[in-house]
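Regression test case RT-17, inverse folding.

Input:
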C-alpha cells in the first residue's frame, strides 16, 4: 500500500517568527496595531492614526469622557464601535461595556460584528484569554455564558458587551464603559425638539444612571443641531475631551490634526472638489455632516434677523399661550411692541401641565413681576375647552410644593376641614385669530419688524434656530417645516390677533 504523506506546514524563518511575535505584542497594547493585525486591509490615514492614539489614551484610563465627530465614510465606527470594544475586552475581559445607537437594529449589528472579530483566529493569537460561548445562548442557565444579538459575555471572566437602541433599557446593568454611536438617525430627527429631548431624557435617566465613579464614556456622532446630545453634554459638563475632524480644515492646527486650512480630510475618497460642491449645493448639510458645525442657515431660517437682548423694556405686554401635555409643552410667551420693534420673552415651557398648573404659573408670574392680573392672553383657538376652563374662577387643592413654587399665591389660599385650597380668578384669555393663511401672514408681519428675544429664553431661541423653510438643492421653497414652534406660535397668535391689520374687530 502507498502511504499518503501529510502536507507539512510551511517553514517559518526565525526572522518571520520574530516579526509575528512582535506584531502580536504590539497589537495587545496599541490600537492601530490591533486593527491592522485583525483587519489587514484597513487603510490607515493620518486622522485614523491620531484617532487610534486617542483611543489608546482612553483604554489606559487617561481620558474619561471622549467625543469623536467626523464626516461619514471615514471609518470612525469601524474603529470606535467595532474594533475598539473587542480591543478593550482583550485587554481586560472583565469589562462591562454598553453600546447604544439610534435603533436596536443598528446596535445589534455592532454586537454581531464585535462577536465575529473576537471569534477570529487572529484575535485569539493576540488575546487567547478572551473567548465567547461556542453556541448561541439566549437565557441564563447555571454554568452558561450568554451570547446573543443583545448581549455576549466573556467566558470565565464576567465581562460583557450589551447593545441597545436609544430609549432601550439598561436596567440592572452596571457599566464600566458606555459607548454611544449616533443617537440620532438623521437631520429630521435632530431637528425635532421632541426627539432630541427624548434622547436627552434617556441619556440622563437611563444611560448615566448605570455609570459609576470610574466609568468612562465615548460618544461618536454626526452633529446635526446645536442642541443635540453632544451640544447638551458640552453645555452641562466641562470635562469632555473632543476630537473633531472637519471634512475641510478651517481652524488652526491641533495636536491631532496638523492639516493646513483648506485641506480635505480624506481626499482619496472625498476630494476637496466634491466637498466644495456639496457645500455649494447644500450648506446646511455640509456644515453639519462634514464640518460637525451645526448652525442655522440664514437661507433656510424663517426668522433670520431676530436678535437677543438682556432684558425686556418697560412696555405694556400681551401674552401668547400654546397648549400641550404629554409630548408637547404648554407655553406662555410675553410679547411687547414699540413702533417697528417687537420684544419677546419665554415665561414657561413645560410638559405635563394641567389647566390648574398653567393658571398657577401664569398668575404667580404676573404677581412676581407686577403685571396686571387681567393682562390679555391670546391662546390657541383650537383648544376652546381649555380656554374656557382658564377663563373661569378655579378652586383647586394646594399641592405639596405649591407654596415653594408659587410664593406669590399664598394670599389666595383658604383652609377647610379637607385641607388647603386656592381660589384663583379666571385669566383674561381669548382664542387666537387663525383664518386660512394665518401662519404666512404672521411670519410676514414678524419679518417686517425688528424682533428681539430675551437672552434667558432658551427654548424660544432654540425654536427660532430650527424653524426653517424646506430647502431643495440649497434653495428655499418658502414652505415651512411647521414644527418646533411651541413658543413661536404664541407670538404669531398675538401678532395676528392684536397687532396686525388683519386682526378681528374685538375690544378687550
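Golden output:
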Amino acid at each position: 500500500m502507498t502511504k499518503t504523506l501529510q502536507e507539512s506546514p510551511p517553514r517559518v524563518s526565525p526572522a518571520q517568527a520574530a516579526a509575528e511575535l512582535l506584531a502580536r505584542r504590539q497589537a495587545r497594547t496599541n490600537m492601530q496595531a490591533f486593527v491592522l493585525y485583525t483587519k489587514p486591509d484597513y487603510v490607515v490615514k493620518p486622522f485614523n492614526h491620531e484617532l487610534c492614539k486617542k483611543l489608546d489614551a482612553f483604554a489606559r484610563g487617561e481620558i474619561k469622557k471622549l467625543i469623536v465627530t467626523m464626516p461619514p465614510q471615514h471609518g470612525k465606527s469601524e474603529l470606535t464601535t467595532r474594533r475598539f470594544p473587542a480591543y478593550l475586552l482583550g485587554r481586560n475581559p472583565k469589562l462591562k461595556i454598553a453600546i447604544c445607537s439610534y435603533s436596536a437594529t443598528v446596535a445589534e449589528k455592532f454586537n454581531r460584528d464585535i462577536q465575529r472579530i473576537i471569534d477570529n483566529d487572529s484575535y485569539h493569537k493576540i488575546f487567547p484569554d478572551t473567548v465567547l460561548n461556542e453556541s448561541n445562548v439566549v437565557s441564563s442557565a447555571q454554568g452558561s455564558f450568554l451570547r446573543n444579538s443583545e448581549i455576549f459575555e466573556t467566558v470565565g471572566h464576567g465581562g460583557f458587551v450589551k447593545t441597545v437602541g436609544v430609549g432601550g433599557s439598561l436596567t440592572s446593568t452596571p457599566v464600566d464603559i458606555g459607548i454611544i454611536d449616533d443617537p440620532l438617525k438623521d437631520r429630521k430627527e435632530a431637528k425635532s425638539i421632541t426627539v432630541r429631548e427624548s434622547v436627552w431624557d434617556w441619556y440622563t435617566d437611563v444611560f448615566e444612571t448605570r455609570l459609576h465613579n470610574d466609568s468612562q464614556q465615548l460618544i461618536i456622532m454626526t452633529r446635526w443641531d446645536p442642541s443635540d446630545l453632544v451640544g447638551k453634554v458640552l453645555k452641562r459638563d466641562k470635562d469632555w475631551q473632543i476630537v473633531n475632524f472637519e471634512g475641510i480644515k478651517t481652524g488652526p492646527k491641533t495636536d491631532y490634526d496638523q492639516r493646513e486650512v483648506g485641506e480635505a480630510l480624506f481626499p482619496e475618497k472625498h476630494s476637496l472638489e466634491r466637498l466644495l460642491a456639496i457645500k455649494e449645493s447644500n450648506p446646511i448639510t455640509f456644515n453639519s455632516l462634514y464640518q460637525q458645525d451645526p448652525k442655522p442657515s440664514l437661507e433656510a431660517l424663517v426668522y433670520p434677523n431676530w436678535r437677543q437682548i438682556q432684558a425686556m423694556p418697560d412696555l405694556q405686554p400681551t401674552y401668547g399661550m400654546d397648549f400641550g401635555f404629554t409630548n408637547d409643552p404648554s407655553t406662555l410667551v410675553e410679547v411687547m411692541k414699540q413702533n417697528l420693534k417687537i420684544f419677546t420673552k419665554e415665561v414657561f415651557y413645560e410638559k405635563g401641565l394641567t389647566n390648574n398648573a398653567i393658571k398657577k404659573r401664569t398668575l404667580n408670574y404676573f404677581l412676581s413681576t407686577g403685571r396686571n392680573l387681567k393682562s390679555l392672553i391670546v391662546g390657541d383657538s383650537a383648544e376652546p375647552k381649555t380656554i374656557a376652563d382658564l377663563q373661569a374662577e378655579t378652586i383647586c387643592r394646594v399641592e405639596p410644593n405649591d407654596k415653594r413654587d408659587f410664593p406669590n399665591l399664598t394670599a389666595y389660599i383658604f383652609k377647610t376641614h379637607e385641607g388647603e385650597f386656592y381660589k384663583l380668578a379666571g385669566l383674561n384669555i381669548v382664542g387666537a385669530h387663525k383664518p386660512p393663511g394665518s401662519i404666512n401672514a404672521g411670519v410676514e408681519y414678524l419679518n417686517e419688524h425688528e424682533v428681539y428675544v430675551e437672552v434667558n429664553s432658551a427654548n424660544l431661541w432654540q425654536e427660532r434656530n430650527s424653524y426653517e423653510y424646506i430647502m431643495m438643492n440649497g434653495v428655499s421653497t418658502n414652505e415651512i417645516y411647521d414644527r418646533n414652534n411651541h413658543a413661536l406660535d404664541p407670538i404669531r397668535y398675538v401678532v395676528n390677533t392684536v397687532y396686525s391689520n388683519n386682526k378681528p374687530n374685538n375690544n378687550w
